[in-house]
Design brief:
85% of the residues lie in helices and 0% in strands. The protein is mainly α and 61 residues long. Helix 1 runs antiparallel to helix 2. The protein is rod-shaped and about 60 Å long.
């Protein structure tokens, strides 16, 4: 999911024409996609860390 968002953001920025007045829309879309990917990764890392911590607790008891 997040890799798709990052790839999409990269593609939007590469294909945007900076001479066109609507280039800000492409930049905004790319930034929103990148921020969504970052939020997803942070959430995923927290969930994985919590699951790993629970697994350590169960094995040490």
């Amino acid at each position: 999911m997040c890799l798709v968002c990052i790839a999409f953001a990269s593609w939007v920025l590469k294909t945007a024409n900076p001479q066109v007045g609507d280039a800000w829309k492409a930049v905004l879309l790319a930034n929103v996609s990148a921020l969504s990917a970052i939020r997803y990764l942070r959430k995923y890392v927290r969930v994985e860390a919590a699951a790993g911590e629970r697994a350590l607790r169960h094995t040490s008891v």
